[in-house]
Give the backbone structure.
Amino acid sequence: NYIIGEWRTTKSMWAMFSRQHSPLLLQVSTTKPVEAFHRRIKFNVSSRTKKSKFGFLGLVSHLHMIGTKIDEDARRNEENFRSSHLKEVENFPELRNFPVPIQKLLIGELEEVMNLSAEPDFIDPNNVECDCTFYRQYLLPCRHIFLADVHYGILTPDHWETYSFMFDESGFEVYESVTNEYIHNGIYDEIGAPERRALTCKEILESLRTRYYELDEDLL
């Protein structure tokens, strides 16, 4: 009774535990990257059967080369985090604005929709949320929301823009402190969001105005 009365009502707050122990947030869940880094350092530097091929200056140069290579890999991975897409995105263009790891999560939930045989519960389009672990952990559409969308069409372009906006600036760091109120109270109240929305509106109006003048000239 204590668990039901005191803990069950606050289960949406438990998601922090799942996120802090998720490979999605940690990015590195094993010691393999560290071991690979040490293996690079030791390559042609030390050996049980041979003397080192480097002197002190050669060793410093070797370490600098390894560090430069790691920095280049990090920059390339950072670019891929935003720019690359999975092939399944062709069938789900709404996922294009998400980082690749998030695309994998959402595609996994979409694939699970086929395994749900029960009729979906109606979800309020004005308050799209679910009580499952996936939604509480990532605050993203889960298989139950996708199934409800198939039947009721609850997900609009505004919903997708709201979800993708979470990762525009902070990436996965958004999960370090975010709660479900971040979605429920309106993610567009975030600093910078109104300005970005206004800028997008101005760009659209400017393109329409330019097109109008082009058509007007053609008619004349």
Q: What stands out?
A: The radius of gyration is 24 Å.
